[in-house]
Amino acid sequence: MKLIINLKIILTATLIFIGFNLFAQDKTLKEVAIKANKPTIKQEADRITYDLQADPQSKFSSVLEMMRKVPFVTVDGNENIMLKGNTSYKILINGKPSSLMERDAKSILRSMPASTIQRIEVYTTPPAKYDAEGLGGIINIITNKKLVDGYNGTLNINERTPTGPGAGTSFTAKAGKLGLSVFGGGNLTDNPATTTLNTRTTTGANPTNLIQQGSTRSDNKNGYLGTELSYEINPYNLVSAQFNINGSRNNGFSDQVSVLNQTVGPIAYNIGNDNDGRGKGLDAGVNYQLGFKNDQKKLLTFSYRYFKYTNSSHNDIAFSNRVNYTDPDYNQDNTSSASEHTAQVDLVKGFKQWTVEAGVKSIFRDNSSDFQSNAFNPVTGNFDRVTALSNTYNSTQNILAAYNTWRYASKKLEVKAGVRLEHTTTDADFISTSSAAHQRYLNLLPSIAINIPLDVTSGLNLGFSQRLKRPGINKLNPFVDRSNPNFYSSGNPGLSRSVVSDLRLGYSLSKKANFNVSVFYDFGKNLDLLVSTLDPATNVTYSTYKNTGSVFGIGNAIAFNYPIAKGWDISINTNFMYFKIEGPVDGGTSKQNFVVFSSTSSTNYNINDSWRVGASVSVNGRNPTGLQGSTNGSLSPSVYASKQLIKNKLSLSASVSNPFTKYRNTITETKGTNFAQTVTNQNYFRTFNFSLNYNFGKLKESIKKTKRGINNDDGSR
């Protein structure tokens, strides 16, 4: 009831705001009209761009849902994002790293209305000026549009059944030399109870069969706000700054009946897990750009950025109906944080058809984790700390980098080539156990991207790059999650970096139809993969990350858009990758040959100037989970209709996703040398969406920003 009341208040306030603006503004609002006939996809030498504002489906979808239509990007049935079949990538906001994407990118993108985003850029061959982190490449989300004196904005409110409401906005303004850009939003997500099923069979001297059945429910809240500010001191001096904050809170409860059948007698119990988690993040940066009166092709930029986020979780574990099970009730607390300071200097020099860039950069990171496990003491009635299962962890990582890039551009050829040198120093200390780990490594990483126009409508693209992956705090954190007594998981503070090489060839055509196809070949080793082993003595499956295994694969990405008739178009985005992955597990070798496939097809039809309808279907194949496992695929259809209530200003949209399937079971299978297990989680699949989108503004002249800034595309996910 409270949720419904809150939604009504939001809706009423929004309609009052819209009505006031419509009454107060004159006809200059027509300047913010969005033209739907512009191409959605643009290919450049080192990137491919998807224009969300050219896609009518963006008016009622989240950014996460629209990711399915972006070339090279895959979103599976669990809403996990992969870039070129890889879970290692970097997401930037307006070309800069942001705490929004560092802490919990999936939740933020799920709550971010696509109508507030201009475009999504995918760097398939990132230039050397970008940090080398992210094996798959870089996803850059552009929120703000170029603006002249005046203001412009978008406001969106939406309701998704059965989960809950959300809202988002973007706003830009410029007055003389001062420019401002703001975007923000949030959502409330109430996930009703769904079922879970875990099964595991083991072999050996004491074969066992484990069955766990239960249910889970949760309530989540997410919010975010980002700002950019610029001031043009004079034609040769420009200062800009950015500030982003985000926060989340989740509460959940799960219950489960667990039965372990074995030759020495069964072990059974009921378990209840009351959990609570919260997190927050912020980042702030400032950039100073210096131009030169006697050389307008020369720019010098100084940048600084501070970033920090924290996550905390608490679990209360209680047992009942015990059969041969004596472990006490317990609780777990884990607080982790990450912070960094970054300083950077960039110099750009242009002459004739050449552009040369060079820069130096330093990053100083500090990660920490404080985790505790407390067991119930029946004598005192208190929870006592278990020292063996508690620890305090701290690590520092310092990165020193330098790069040099060269760009040649003519009507017949464009080449971007460069090299980046990065030195990394990592020191980790386990305070409670008085142990430490130290790493030092140097990487020289080249990149080259070539664009060859064949004519005014088509061209070839070639690229080669080497990328690395440094493990983030989520994978380094040694906290052991014991919320399920038969399945433990933790990070590994001893992880080191991985390096993967990528070779790409692409072709693009832009006529009446837009067609882009790319073929790529990736190879690398020392990947940090999830590895699971079984301890027969305790009947616990333990999962952690290890630098083990090698990978090579070949894949392609195809994007196609075609106007069948006036007001009617179709589009297809398909990604395919075949790869082999192998590595040692339990004294043996695990090998997987895998095909990763995803495809999203959609069609849109304008009934008249105000009504539009459309449909889409997404297909995902199986996806790997670490060195030994995989998850099942999914089929997801949807239909929608939208109505312009006031042309180019106010629109109402409604859609239904997966109308024929209320629930979807996510099935994860994992096999080891002496066990095989299956985890099945039921999720709500059918959703009804309602969205109200309002555009407002009054425009005059273009907003100016520094052309260089902090680009920390390194801290891994």
Main sheet record: 22 strands, antiparallel, barrel
What structural category arises from helix and sheet content?
Answer: mainly beta
Specify the CATH class: Mainly Beta
Q: Indicate the CATH topology.
A: Maltoporin, Chain A
**What oligomeric arrangement do these chains adopt?**
single chain
> What is the tally of helical segments?
4
Q: Give the overall shape, derived from the CA principal axes.
A: globular
Considering the protein shown, what is the CATH homologous superfamily?
A: TonB-dependent receptor, beta-barrel domain
CATH A-level architecture: Beta Barrel
Given as residue ranges, the uncertain stretches (5+ residues, pLDDT < 50) are 1-36
- Straight-line N-to-C gap: 37 Å
User: For the CA atoms, what is the radius of gyration?
Assistant: 26 Å
Portion in helices? under 10%
Number of domains: 1
Number of strands: 38
Q: What amount of the residues lies in strands?
A: over 45%
Overall pLDDT score: 87
